[in-house]
Amino acid sequence: MEYVFNLRQRWHHFLHNEELKQKVYSIVFESDTPKGRLFDIILIGSITLSVLLVILESMHIFPHSAYLTLRVLEYLLTFFFTIEYLARIYCLKQPLKYIFSFFGIVDLLATLPVYLSFFLHGSHYLLVIRAFRLIRIFRIFKLFRFIYEGNLLLRSLWMSAPKILIFFFFVLILIISMGTVMYMVEGTNPDTGFNNIPNSIYWAIVTMTTVGYGDITPVTPVGRFLSAVIMLIGYTIIAVPTGIVSATMVNQHKKQEKRKCPRCHREGHDAESLYCKYCGAKLKKEEPVEHINDRPNDERF
Questions:
Q1: SS3 65
Q2: Can you tell me the distance from the alpha carbon of 289 to that of 284, in angstroms, rounded to the nearest whole number?
Q3: Are 175 and 206 in contact (CB under 8 A)?
Q4: CB of 224 within 8 A of CB of 218?
Q5: Is there a single domain that holds both residue 62 and residue 139?
Q6: Are residues 181 and 139 in the same domain?
Q7: For residues 117 and 132, what is the distance between their CA atoms, to the nearest angstrom?
Q8: Does 155 lie in the same domain as 140?
Q9: Which one of 22, 129, 147, 159 is at 20 to 30 Å from 168 when CA atoms are compared?
Q10: How far is CA 73 from CA 52, 57, 69, 78, 135, in A?
Q11: Mean of pLDDT values over 173-186
Q12: Of 99-103, 125-129, 137-141, 176-180, which range is least confident?
């Protein structure tokens, strides 16, 4: 009983050891320190090696003994990625925010397949296990953590998501409307591909995205005229999401350039950085810019 009590005390102390959590956080999440930089290099090498193992395993050109070696290496890498995943959860004050984030889901999807293969036994499950193991390729997305441009792109896409969703909803309404109109124009002709509204909507999607499979084509002059209009609209629509994301990327880049270290006064720090990458001093948190429409009605004027 005393041993169990001591074990519980040690476990409780481990879970609430703030000093240890701060050390783990500086290594796992921050790359400004020598240990954090070394950890990032090891993690990048492990991710790259794991992806190469998946590719080599799919080629079926090695002897059986070589595949056993690949499997052992995969188990070792999976163990390392599991420790990394648990360490990130351990040192965070809000672990659920990381678990349900993009990289948290990628980390989980990339680690689970090996463990699932231990529980799904039987010959009729082999194909399912193989499909699960292919999910390991998702580890390559974790490399975006270490690429400034990739991180900036993901953050810009996330911030642009509401505008893009509204624009996508508008395009969806436009496609349904144009597909319905084409059904009304072309649907009366015999042997036409516009024999129902879903087929007409499919044609509108293919045409507006400028893919142009050619499996369904209009034959009437009015239908061809509408096709030309939809093609021209498609060219203009494609550029809109690109403009939204590009504008957000420019704004994010300007914000990062303005972050200045209070000690060395150098700029160019990432938005999520806590310490200066030049001198190691703690950075001030970036205060959000208050928009006039976000204020209460009695404080706007």
A1: helix
A2: 15
A3: no
A4: yes
A5: yes
A6: no
A7: 8
A8: no
A9: 147
A10: 11, 12, 6, 9, 17
A11: 90
A12: 125-129
Last residue of some domain: 146, 172, 202? 146
- The first and second tokens of residue 120, run together, are 């799904």
Question: What CATH number is given to the structural domain containing 129?
Answer: 1.20.120.350
The one-character DSSP state at 284 is P
What is the average per-residue pLDDT within 141-161?
70
Contacts of 72 (CB under 8 A, 6+ apart): none
Among 239, 178, 170, smallest CA distance to 205 is for 178
What are the structure tokens assigned to 220, written together?
């009437």
C-alpha span between 177 and 171 (Å, rounded): 10
More confidently predicted of 59 and 173: 173
Name residue 248's amino acid: T
- Same domain, residue pair 167 and 227: yes
Q: What pLDDT, in 10s, does the model give residues 84-124?
A: 899 999 988 888 888 888 778 888 877 887 787 777 654 44
224 and 171 assigned to the same domain: yes
pLDDT at 225: 92
Q: Is residue 113 part of a domain?
A: yes
Q: Are residues 197 and 84 in the same domain?
A: no
Enclosing domain of residue 133: 14-146
| Least confident range of 49-53, 179-183, 295-299 | 295-299
